[in-house]
Structure formats: structure tokens, C-alpha cells
Amino acid sequence: MSENLSLNIGIYGSTGRVGRVLIENLQNDKNVNISCLHAIDEFKFAVPEYIKKTDLLETLFDLSDVIIDFTAPSGTEALLRYAIKRPKPLIIGTTGLTSEQLALLEQAAQSMPVLYSTNMSLGVAVLNRLVELASEKLRDFDIEIVEQHHRFKKDAPSGTAFTLGESAAKARGLELSKVRISGRDGIIGQRNKDEIGVMSLRGGDIIGRHTVGFYNDGEFIELNHTATSRDTFAKGAIHAAKWIVNQPNGQYTISDCLGL
Predict the structure, then answer these.
(1) Order of strands across the sheet with 208-216?
(2) What is the second-level CATH architecture of the domain 7-116+230-258?
(3) Which one of 52, 53, 153, 170 is the catalytic residue?
(4) Per-residue pLDDT tens for 55-64?
(5) Which residue among the candidates 38, 88, 149, 210 is catalytic per the annotation?
(6) CATH number of 122-227
């Protein structure tokens, strides 16, 4: 089982929804080995007995060549603080990080390769590039972003919507924080030319759907990505893990490992 496996991948926060599909996808990949599952909560699904489980970061780091993290902001912060003392390639897909936690991530990237993306989907990486292009070339078009997720998602707008908005704003020389609108109600006056709407919908079991619309008089374009399974996030993270171990210290995104 381990003779032909070359890359030892540890999962931090392995009891969550994405953690479960990561475990399933890694078990089906003959080029990697699940070295360790870090968990504080109990597993609510079956995990093979031969896979090492621990609640100690030290053990996770001892056994892993690279670590994948899909937790909560507080969990990612704890991981980064430990990694700064003991550098290890990291793949981080946690959303909702504060400015202080993002600064900590930048600090960690000075001594290890860290790939951070608000969405590990390879399709979303391509969508982000298309949004940049459309925003730059269609400067007279109004931009509206709508994201939809399941009822359990805690942060809004989604990290992916923020990333798409930032790409659209940057392509026009704008700062998203100064032009983002997240709600409209009452007599608000006409739409500002530079504003970028970022709206959130929550309900049911929607894995994730993002639409970026470019609207002008007489025509509009809508770019859409829909995730129908969390497998897309797991597969993207595994692809990134295989890539990151050969990179120098620094901060990367899923777009980097696709060469976008």
C-alpha cells in the first residue's frame, strides 16, 4: 500500500464536509498517501483503521510532506502560527480570514510555500481570469456578482465572490473595498458607474454557484460557475498539493499552479 506512494499528504480539519471528500479522493489516488488526519472533533463517517489520526499538530507535521487545510479562520490561524515555527508546504482553502490572519499567512509564506485560494476549483480559477479580461475590455458595462450557497455557510459574501470582485475591480484600477455594494433597499438613487454589486443567497444544499454579470444598454454577458459536488474542491486541492512541494517559498493561488 505504501511502496509506490511518493507524496505524504496530511489533512488538517479532516472531520468537515470537504475533509470527508478529500479522504475519499486521496484514497483513490495511487500517487499519494494519506499520512495523517488531524481532528479535534469525532469522525461522523468511516475512516480506514490504517490511517493515522491525531489531535496534535506535532504529529501531523512529523508525518506529512504537505498539509491541506479546510477549517475555520481560528483553525487556520493556529496552523499558521505553528507552521511559522516549523515550516511545511501548506494548501489553505479556508474562507472568511480576517486582515490580521491574511497578514499572518503572508508572514508564513516567507519561510515556506503556501497556496491560498478561496476556491480550489480549477474551473473557478479559469472563471477568475475571464472576469479580469471582461472587466478590462468592457469598461462601460455594469458589474454585478451573485453567489449562492447552502444554508450552513457562515460567511457572506463568499470568499470566491470577494476574489472575483477584486479581480474585476483591479482590472479597472479600482479598489473593491471602495466600490462594493452588498445590498440595496429603499430610494438609493441611480447606480454609480464604478460600483460592483456582490450579493449573497443562502438556502438548501447548494454546493456553490457564482455568476458575474456585465450589463450594458442593449446587451449583457453572464459568466457562471456551478459546483455540483465538493469533489471539485478536493481534486483542486490535491492537484495543488502535488504542485506546491516543488515550489520555492512564497504565496501562491490555484491560478499559479494552472499557469494562468
Answers:
(1) 180-181, 196-202, 142-149, 208-216, 219-227
(2) 3-Layer(aba) Sandwich (3.40)
(3) 153
(4) 999 999 999 9
(5) 149
(6) 3.30.360.10
